[in-house]
Structure formats: C-alpha cells, structure tokens
Amino acid sequence: MKYGYFDDQEKEYIITTPDTPLPWINYLGSENFFSLMSNTGGGYSFYKDAKLLRLTRYRYNNVPLDSNGHYYYINDNGTVWNPGWQPSQTPLDSYECRHGLGYTCYSGTKNKVKASVTAFVPLHDSCEIHKVTLENASDAPKDFSLYSYVEFCLWNAMDDMTNFQRNLSTGEIEVEGSVIYHKTEYRERRNHYAYYAVNAEIDGFDTDRNTFVGTYGSNKEPVMVGKNSSGNSMASGWSPIGSHRLSIHLEPGEAKELIFVLGYAENPDDKKWSAPNIINKEPSKSVLDKYSTSAQVNEAILSLKKHWERLLSTYSVSMSDEKAARMVNIWNQYQCMVTFNMSRSASYYESGTGRGMGFRDSCQDLLGFVHMIPERARERIIDIASTQFEDGSAYHQYQPLTKKGNLDIGSGFNDDPLWLIAGVSAYIRETGDWDILKESVPFDNDETKSQSLMEHLRRSFGFTKNNLGPHGLPLIGRADWNDCLNLNCFSTEPGESFQTTGPSEGPVAESIMIAGMYVKYGKEYATICRMTGLEEEALKAEESVKEVYDAVLKSGWDGKWFLRAYDAFGEKVGSKECEEGQIFIEPQGFCVMGGIGISEGLAEKALDSVKEHLDTPYGIVILQPAYSTYQKHLGEITSYPPGYKENAGIFCHNNPWITIAETMIGRGNRAFEVYRRTCPAYIEEISEIHKTEPYVYSQMIAGKDAKNFGEAKNSWLTGTAAWTFVSISQYILGIRPGFHGLIVDPCLPDSIEEFTAIRKFRGADYHIQVRKSKHGEPKAFLVDGMSMEGNEVPFEEGKKEYHITVVLP
C-alpha cells in the first residue's frame, strides 16, 4: 500500500498518514549545519560532525520509536497535540508532510486549529529555521498555548550517552529575552555554543528537562504543557533543553506566523579565551536579525529552491517513463548530494558516533555528484588522498571535522586504493581539469611527506600491483568492498585461528572482485598516464593489467561464473565446489565492467548465472546459497542469519554493477529490469513490505532466505545512490563524460522508444535527442546536424551549445 504520493512539479514527496511503516526522513542542510527530520518532526541537528558537534539529542533505541525531535505542542483547552502527530500521538483531524529538496513541511489540524511547520537550513548560515504558521479555521475566537521543545546534546554525542557521572553536572544555560543559549562546557575548552530563539515575546520558558517533562514524565505529554504553564527553569547540570511558551489568540480566519531558529555560533578567533564563561552573542544576534521576519525567511526558502534547481539542471531528461524520469531528474540526484554530505556517518541507522567519512565510500559517492558540484568534488578528492599512506594503502575512514584518518578502524581494506583512481578519473573526465594531478597532497596528513596527486594515483595502482597472491590475483587484505568477507582473520592451518589487526596479515587470500577493479581502473590509470605524456608508464600499467586479466581467466573462472575469492587456505570461495556461497554478485558485475570475458563469451554466461541463481522480485541477492552456519575462515559474512546483509541479502549497492555489465553486452531489457527492481519509484506500491522511504534507495533489502523477504533497511546513506545514478544516466541512457568529450551511447529497453536530455558539461549545454529507428531508418549520430563517427562528441573550448541526435538501430 501507499502512504503518500510524488509531486514532481514541486519536487516533493507528500506523506498523508503519520504512522508510516518506519520514520520517513529528510536531510536539511548542504554545507556545515545539518539536520535529520522525520515526517513527524523527529530527528536531530549537528554542525559539521555528528559525533563531536551534536546540538540536539536523539535516542536510537527509544520506545516509542522516533520520539525525540524538534517539537511543537499545542494546549487547546486541555487538548494537547502536535502538528506532526508525534510525540503526543493525539489523533489529528488532518495531517500532511511534504519532504522537499532541503526542506520539510508538516501540518496538522485539531479542533479547527491548523498548525504547520516549514523547516529548512538556509544557505551559508549555521542554523535551522522553522516557520510555524497557526490558523483559526473556526467561526469563533481561539485562545491556546504553543510550546517549542528541543533537548540539547552535550556536544560529544558518544560521551553524552555514556559519561553520566560527569555530564549531569555540566549543563549550563543562559536566557535573554526570547533566546535560550546552550553553553554547556563553554567555560572549559570550547569556543562555541548553541542558541534557540523565537521572533516574539514569550510568556514563559524552560531549560531544565525534569522541570518541563517531569522527573517520571515523558515528552508524550510534558508536565508543564499539561499544566498550561512554564517553570522558567534554569538548567544547572542534569539535562538542558530549550522550550518557549507563547499565548496565542486568533480571531476567526486569522493566521499568525512565528519564526524559530536553532543555531550554532562561535566566538571570533581573537576572543576565544578572553572570557571563558561569557559567550559572545554577536554571531548569534546577526543570524537572528537576518531571519527575524516571514519575508526574510520566505526569501531564504526561495534561494534554497533555486539552489537545488540549479544543481539538478546539470542532468535532466524527458521520457515517457515518468518513474524513471522522476528518479533521474530529482530523487536519485538529491540522494547523491545528501550522501556526499554525510558519507555513512549520520542517518536513522548510523548514529553519527562511529563511522566518519569512508575512503571507498566517498570515492564512490563522488561518481554521483561530481557533475553537480565539481569544485567540491575536487576538495573531497584532496581530503581523501590526504589519508593515504606512502605505500598506497589508506585509512579506511576519516573524521569530517579534522579530516584525519580514523585510528580506530585503521587500514588494510585492499580495494580502497583503486577507488581513488576511480574518483579522480571521474573528476577529470567531468571537468577536464588535469591540473589537479599537480596538486601537492600529503601522505597521512603529514605535510612533510607531500607529493603530487599523480604520485598518489601511482601509489594506488602500485599497491595492488605489488600485492598479488599465489594465483596472480590481488590480495584481499582485511576485506575488499565486502567488509564482512574476512578471509585473512585466521592462520593457514585449518582449525587454528588468530585475530589480526594490521593491513598485511595473512598474505594468501585473493579477491577476484579487486581483480575486476584493477582491470577496469587500471585501464583508466593508463589513459591518465598517456594523456599526461607518461607513455612508458602507460604501457607498463597496461601490461600489468593484462597479466591480472589473464589470471582471472585462468584462475578466476568457475565454468559458468567468476569465482569470488581464494581464502587463507587457498580454497575457492564462490564456486560450484562450495556447499554454500557458490556464486557471488560482485565479481560478475565488476569483472564484466572491466571488460573481462566479453570477447571470450564468458561475460554473458556469468550474467545469465546471476539471473538464474541470484534473481528475486525485489532485486539480486549478494550470494547463493545462503550460509546456514558460522564459518570462521570466512568471517563476519556468515554471522548474519540467512537472507540478511552480506549473507544473501539484496545489497542494493551492487545491483547497478549488473545493470552496467548488461549494457556492456548490449542487453538493454535485462539492464532496465535490474534497475527497476530496486528503484524506489517502482516499489512505492509495496511500502508496507519495503518499509523504508519510497523516494530514496536503501542499502539492503532482506533476501529470499529471510523471514521478512522484501523488507529494506539502512536507507539514504548508501553507495547505491551514486552507482544507480551512474547506471541509469551513463549506461542505460548512455550519456557519460569521456576524457576527450561527452559520450552518448544508450542501451535502451524496449519500453523506452525515445528520450530527450539536457546535459551541462564543461560549461556548455548539450541538447540530446535519442530515438529508435522507425521504418528502416538508418543508424545515425549527428552533432549540430553533421554526421559523426563514434559516440564521443569532442569538446571544443569556448563552444557553449551542442545539438546531438542519435538514431539507434
């Protein structure tokens, strides 16, 4: 069943019932300040780093689900309710939530009072704004109270959840007029604070949670809201909050708007430590003055919408399949941008306290957003490369605030280095900015060990080249893309296990998936070398790539599909010889994407095997048969119950690899079939099964071996977003950047006869029309009316417009 519907004109998903199968969220913010907001007002905010600079508190294991957020309570003659339904859950006479691009609007009506909240993070300012509109829809005057509510986090979200013996004595609050200042730990070592304000005189406030909620109360109906009063409490230790109380009088038909601002501020550098317990209020006052009226806020919303229109205009398509067009034009690109901002750090499944920015994650995410914000992609590449070690390996994760490698996770994931080549190649093809290769970039953020970015790529390529196993295939290290396939966690003597910690343990296990990556991205590295005048290096790279290509054919082919790996004992993984885990999806996708086996006729066999063994109505599972018991020599992959996550779940991230591989052998119908099965717009009708948001991709869907087959988890922050956008935009529709210009090479299904697209590329607009041949019309490729050989339109410096017509046979 459906719980809402798409409004493509407004670029919104409209939710019509509050009790969705799971909280359906949106992300507010695009620069430094971010908020997660559910369809009922739940969520939290942070500045840059969800762990170290958390403004508001959120409880992931809370019951009722999603019952902490930025809330508004109305007490209307004893009836307490919220415009977003949560947390009071008072039945509403009407409800609606509109998730848009960088903003969320939700509204509710009760007893002829309508309350609506428009929430967003404005461009260039570190705050979250709520425009609250109250309307009297009755024919009599209305008097009621409105309460705001946020619960402050004590900045370090992990410490906030654990160090109670200290934290319950540190809370500090200051109130000045209608502004509540959260300055906990300001006196000790920080130069920042939070503030929460409303642009109206208040009738009361509370800053102490126990006073507002009640020591044994809950935010379902706080004590002070029930009393229709305020305690004017000043938090001292314990748990600081921010709550304003306003008495509202509305005549029949009258509406009133209030502006609430939750913000982050810092003392200017020259005043950091001059007065350790006195905050400098000027930074917050300047923001509050900037957003003190409805007109100012409306202008900021308009600017935000124009910002997103500009970003999405880089790639837009028109075709008869409105669901595919909806995803390409709006939601897939939007999710790519959110994933760029967050990596895997902060969602309703990632607490923001553990993982930071992933090395492999960020490189892959770049594939989906580089066309929209190439300048920020450039910055991200430098950040990623700076966490690399001199031998070409890298920290697996780094923290967004410090941009330093995460020591807790370390390195040793042997696919990581090759992803840097993938990201840099995508950036250069998009922008033509070859100068980035000359940028001086440190190793391990040590400026004394800086080398050119080209040298970083050289080390990336060399790391894999220098770490091949007994079969001439790349060593897997701790793991490859599949973090849970831990083949080197145990000694080479069966039955003798040992836990390892470093990147060079167990140098026997080999990965066929990394082999596919090496062939694919090794070719791109060779092209980069050649185009920068390094012909000899290019030839050597191609020679090394050919050796691994041959090794895959010799030792990585299992008769009908590619093997997954060789374990620490030299035994096959992902083979017909295995009792379980006979076939994996990853090498079938990446080997074919690298071109392995296409000319030998093996690619088609491998992809046919995927369809035969791994297909389900909800997507392609990662492996079959599922592992039924824990197997030490395979690691964490076997720790999951059958059908979940890496143990035969539908890992949506790698389904696009199959889509792309299918286009490489010209099977458009199959490519589109794979695309549709995990695409949110096509599975909106089964939201009661799927459960996660019907407008964004999820990381995982429970596989056919699982009890809850078809149920999704881990939505929003997933490499699925970038890879799926690449699969549909660059391979099915076929519009992708090349080193010399824009390539137009579609592989369409029968259901798409034609389409038009506008692609902005290197400062020019490309107007593209693609149609299938009718009545024997010959194949054609026209650029500005002139026939052209090939499918790559050469870029011409200074030219601002291209008109391309493609007639497919």
From TrEMBL:
Domain Glycosyl hydrolase 94 catalytic: 307-734
Zinc as UniProt keyword: no
Highest taxon in the source lineage: Bacteria
Alphabetical UniProt keywords: Glycosyltransferase, Transferase
Stretches of the chain forming a coiled coil according to its record: none
Domain Glycosyl hydrolase 94 supersandwich: 11-270
Pfam families: GH94_b-supersand (PF06165), Glyco_hydro_94 (PF17167)
Molecular function as annotated in GO: transferase activity
CDD domains: GH94N_CBP_like
Transferase among keywords: yes
InterPro entries, alphabetized: 6-hairpin_glycosidase_sf, 6hp_glycosidase-like_sf, Gal_mutarotase_sf_dom, GH65_N, GH94_catalytic, GH94_Enzymes, GH94N_CBP, Glyco_hydrolase_94_b-supersand
Protein name: Glycosyl transferase
Phylogenetic lineage: Bacteria, Bacillati, Bacillota, Clostridia, Lachnospirales
